[in-house]
């Protein structure tokens, strides 16, 4: 074994990289807001378990990583089968494992484990000395003593609340969780029209504020009174909200010169349209919608999931507003889920976004308007995007864009060598591989295949065909060979929706996917 693997710090860094490396690059994941505490299912537990079995030098460090994020109490309580991983007497095993736990994602209704939990907890206090993140989903009143036993060391807390459980635990949080820095409250009943003051009182009890806050009630929006409480917090970096009309203050703000001064990540869901996000950003002076630049250098992420159907003018206004900031945005995710065609067809220009002077750090760009709205996108725009945003990881326009050529896609994917997923409407005609009239020789100099791209989603191609598509040498041979040369790690092509209206029921991209 190499000498560097005898250094525990290096081994631990490697194991954590493997443990956290199980990521699924799916563009549909942008349709939901992120949780403060990631699911245990996203961790590569199997690989860490195998590393623990490799040798004695790996065992303890690998077990520390393996048990750092657990879903429930059962690994601590149930007797285990004989294993060469554990040589500790069974009586002391719960205490040894509990000391390794840093994140606990407790599932629904696990109260059958509570008596055994307390039997272990009496032997050592606290049972989880290194626990810093806790996701609690059991809303039964019988779980409250167990929950309060866990809270003293917790810094990140996620609660899924019901009405009776809320009344019992919310008032106790400031004293039960003295180290709390990040709070997530979700569920269908944690906030109603009759009790916003309960949440407001809780937030007021943290005069110095929190660093992360997420309030996403399914049926009720966060009222403006709550926003007025958190807007002056000096250290709030991460904010997730369920936004509605009642969230926008009716009177001008006179709180602090700059509300949300440290905000870096803004995630918003709403039953309304993009207009509501614009109103929120304008009211709290996060973005301005005039020709003057403003200083809001910390903001890195704008994520909005709306249920409404915005007009093309609204989209244009929002993209133009981004060009009026000096913020170095890294993630822009704007989606609309409204499926009914309530507005006449319209379009807005993608190049409005390219006017932003500080897109060099952009990693995620996902724009998905409703079905009646089209994003006007040209090959020249794609080439400009490739030059301006070399560090793109995810690009998605939800098949709402006008088709771009395979030539432009090739330059984009090769120039943005970190690109892992793309969702675009692309023209499947082989003649679109020819050099575009807008292409520059500099766009193709020194380009190498993209080894990171694993997910390509395309809209149905407008290309016409005579006869069977499966007999077309372009679709079955030339284009698959071209795509493989462009991105060797790409395994298949996904057609986002079928809009093939010719006599044949075959979609050109589906034929390419079968042949790929």
How are the secondary structure elements laid out?
Elements: H1 8-19, H2 45-52, H3 56-66, E1 69-70, H4 74-77, H5 93-98, E2 103-106, H6 114-121, E3 133-136, H7 144-150, E4 156-160, H8 163-169, H9 173-176, E5 182-187, H10 196-204, E6 212-217, H11 224-230, E7 238-243, E8 265-270, H12 274-283, E9 301-306, H13 312-322, E10 331-336, E11 346-349, H14 351-354, E12 364-368, E13 373-376, H15 379-388, E14 394-396, H16 406-415, E15 421-424, E16 455-458, H17 473-486, E17 493-495, H18 508-515
Parallel strand pairs: 1-2, 2-3, 3-4, 4-5, 5-6, 6-7, 7-8, 8-9, 9-10, 10-12, 11-13, 12-14, 14-15, 15-16, 16-17
What does it look like?
The chain is globular and about 75 Å long. The protein contains 18 helices and 17 strands. The chain has a domain of 39 residues. The longest helix is centred in the C-terminal third of the chain and has 14 residues. About 4% of the residues have low confidence. The two termini are 41 Å apart. Helices cover 29% and strands 15% of the residues. It has 516 residues and is an alpha/beta fold. Helix 1 crosses helix 3 and helix 2 packs antiparallel against helix 3. A 15-stranded parallel β-sheet has the order 1-2-3-4-5-6-7-8-9-10-12-14-15-16-17. Strands 11-13 form a two-stranded parallel ribbon.
The structural class is: alpha/beta
Ends distance: 41 Å
Count of β-strands? 17
What does the radius of gyration come to?
A: 26 Å
Poorly predicted spans: 80-92, 498-504
Helical percent range? Answer: 25-40%
Mean pLDDT: 79
Please state how the strands of the largest beta sheet are arranged side by side: 1-2-3-4-5-6-7-8-9-10-12-14-15-16-17
Largest sheet: 15 strands, parallel
Shape: globular
């Amino acid at each position: 074994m190499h000498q560097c693997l005898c250094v525990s710090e290096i081994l631990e860094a490697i194991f954590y990289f493997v443990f956290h490396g199980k990521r699924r690059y799916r563009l549909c994941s942008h349709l939901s807001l992120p949780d403060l505490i990631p699911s245990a299912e996203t961790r590569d537990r199997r690989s860490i378990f195998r590393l623990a079995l490799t040798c004695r030098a790996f065992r303890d460090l690998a077990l520390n990583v393996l048990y750092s994020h657990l879903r429930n109490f059962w690994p601590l309580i149930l007797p285990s089968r004989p294993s060469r991983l554990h040589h500790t007497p069974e009586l002391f095993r719960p205490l040894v494992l509990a000391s390794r736990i840093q994140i606990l994602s407790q599932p629904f209704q696990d109260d059958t484990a509570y008596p055994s939990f307390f039997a272990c907890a009496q032997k050592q206090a606290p049972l989880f000395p290194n626990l810093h993140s806790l996701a609690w989903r059991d809303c039964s009143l019988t779980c409250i003593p167990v929950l309060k036993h866990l809270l003293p060391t917790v810094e990140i807390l996620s609660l899924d609340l019901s009405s009776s459980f809320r009344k019992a635990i919310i008032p106790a949080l400031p004293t039960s969780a003295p180290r709390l820095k990040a709070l997530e409250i979700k569920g269908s009943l944690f906030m109603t029209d009759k009790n916003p003051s309960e949440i407001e009182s809780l937030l007021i009890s943290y005069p110095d504020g929190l660093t992360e806050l997420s309030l996403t009630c399914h049926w009720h929006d966060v009222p403006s009174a709550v926003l007025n409480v958190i807007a002056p917090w000096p250290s709030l970096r991460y904010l997730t909200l369920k936004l509605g009309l009642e969230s926008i203050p009716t009177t001008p703000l006179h709180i602090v010169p700059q509300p949300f001064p440290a905000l870096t990540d803004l995630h918003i869901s709403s039953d309304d349209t993009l207009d509501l996000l614009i109103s929120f950003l304008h009211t709290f002076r996060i973005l301005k919608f005039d020709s003057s630049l403003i200083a809001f250098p910390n903001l890195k992420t704008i994520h909005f999931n709306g249920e409404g159907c915005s007009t093309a003018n609204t989209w244009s206004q929002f993209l133009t507003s981004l060009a009026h900031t000096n913020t170095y945005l890294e993630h822009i995710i704007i989606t609309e889920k409204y499926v009914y065609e309530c507005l006449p067809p319209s379009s807005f220009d993608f190049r409005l976004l390219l006017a932003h002077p500080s897109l060099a750090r952009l990693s995620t760009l996902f724009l998905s308007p409703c079905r009646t709205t089209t994003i006007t996108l040209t090959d020249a725009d794609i080439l400009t995007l490739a030059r301006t945003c070399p560090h793109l990881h995810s690009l998605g326009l939800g098949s709402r864009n006008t088709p771009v050529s395979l030539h432009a896609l090739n330059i984009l994917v090769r120039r943005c060598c970190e690109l892992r997923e793309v969702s675009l409407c692309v023209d499947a005609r082989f003649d679109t591989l020819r050099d575009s009239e807008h292409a520059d020789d500099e766009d193709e100099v020194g380009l190498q295949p993209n080894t990171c791209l694993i997910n390509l989603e395309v809209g149905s191609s407008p290309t016409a065909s005579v006869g069977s598509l499966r007999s077309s040498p372009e679709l079955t041979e030339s284009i698959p060979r071209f795509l493989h040369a462009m991105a060797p790690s790409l395994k298949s092509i996904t057609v986002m929706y079928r809009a093939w209206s010719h006599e044949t029921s075959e979609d050109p991209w589906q034929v390419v996917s079968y042949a790929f």
